[in-house]
Amino acid sequence: MYLSLVATYDVIIIGGGLAGLTAAIHLRKESHRILLLEKETYPHHKVCGEYLSNEVVPYLLHLGIELPTQIEINTLEFSTKKGRSLQLPLPLGALGISRYALDNCLYKRAVELGVDFEFCSVESIEYKDDIFTIKNNMDRECQGKFVIGAFGKRSNLDKMLSRKFIARKSPWLGVKAHYHWPEFPDHLVGLHSFEGGYGGLSKTETGAVNFCYLVTYESFQTKQNISEFNDQVVAQNPYLATFFKKATIKFEKPLSIAQISFEAKDAVEDHIVMCGDSAGLIHPLCGNGMAMAIHSAKIASELIHLYLKKGQTTRAQLEKEYALRWHRTFGRRIRTGRRLQKLLMSPKIAELLFSLAVLSPAVLRSIIKKTHGKPIEV
Ligand SMILES: Cc1cc2nc3c(=O)[nH]c(=O)nc-3n(C[C@H](O)[C@H](O)[C@H](O)COP(=O)(O)OP(=O)(O)OC[C@H]3O[C@@H](n4cnc5c(N)ncnc54)[C@H](O)[C@@H]3O)c2cc1C
Questions:
Q1: CA atoms 156, 160, 165, 169: torsion sign
Q2: Residue 237 counted as domain residue
């Protein structure tokens, strides 16, 4: 039997990663009543390359978020499986910041502004007579005028909503750990490929180097475990072999996530406005997923604010406009990332691309530009 919470919120946000927390802060700053439901407590580590594109930094500062990092990244180092490498400047640049620190910093800001939090797993969402009713695993129920779905790449709620991508198996696995390797330069982000995958190396605010990779099951299953895979497959790339030789792991063991899907998703489903990975995930080699999560939350928050405060739009108009803006803002990046990933996964084409990039770095520069946005105006 479910117990009823009397409160009706303006907006209920499901998922307190970057998309959910950003939307909560933005809408609370506009004085709306916000409830955020998240299944984990803060702080916690997440599988992520932890390269935060500078395009969202002005917006985060505008929301009153103080970013705890001095690590400014402005150079990309790229290497192929055979160990050919090149460096090139990143025009926009990024900050190196762990998800442990970043998500926690947004959480603290949301609490400070008066966002209500409940730590629970949402089990169902029902929309009836213009109101959403949400039930969680603690036998509690709450109601809201709007629901933002910010529950990440893969959630029990995707099943509940019968989203198309969830029925299909995805061939990707993600692995991440922090390492002690003081020689690694602050300004660099590495993108290094190996059989069936590629990994990113960059420093975080604690000085730890984050090594995070994406790999196919087909390649991963050839070995017994992560340690064996690192030694025998990842370390075939000479750059990564040196990394494993010199660096020491700081985590008890690496974190991993399975079934990472890059399939297209709808930006609005059953009247739920989807933000961040719930609306679509860009290939990690683009280093743009966090920025997209934050930016999509801004777009959704602005439209919801217009609806709630000014009554200038209907729900149907809002949903249509959000989907349109989402595709206009992120569609090209996602498509470029998808094509790029396909090319890089073929060692022969990757070597060919590499030769092309050495001859004409403008090619690589143009690709980088197409996978990122412009700095967000605030
Ligand atoms: C291997 C890899 C490397 C990456 N590297 C980078 C990088 O270097 N730079 C970059 O910009 N992006 C990177 N990304 C992408 C980036 O991590 C994501 O795009 C970003 O985390 C999306 O944020 P989000 O808020 O949408 O989702 P998340 O951060 O995943 O948050 C979703 C939240 O929802 C919660 N949740 C789920 N279901 C429920 C439920 N039923 N009830 C309550 N809570 C629920 C989860 O606990 C979670 O906290 C990488 C991704 C991968 C896979």
A1: positive
A2: no
Give residues with Cβ within 8 angstroms of 357, minimum separation 6. Answer: 78, 86, 363, 364
On whether residue 310 sits in a domain, the answer given is yes
Note the pLDDT tens digit of each residue in 135-191.
999 999 999 999 999 999 999 999 999 999 999 988 899 999 999 999 999 999 999
pTM above 0.70, yes or no: yes
Using the atom order of ligand 1, give the atom closest to the CA of residue 20. Answer: 25
CA-proximal residue: ligand 1, atom 2 (nearest): 48
| CATH value at residue 267 | 3.50.50.60
Domain assignment present for 179: no
Q: Which residues line ligand 1 (CB under 6 A)?
A: 14-20, 37-40, 46-51, 121-122, 150-152, 155-157, 174, 200, 212, 214, 260, 276-278, 281, 284, 287-291, 293
Number of domains in the chain: 1
Q: How far apart are the first and last CA of the chain?
A: 46
φ and ψ of 127, to 5 deg: -115, 120
Pocket test for ligand 1, best of 18, 118, 296 (most atoms within 8 A of CB): 18
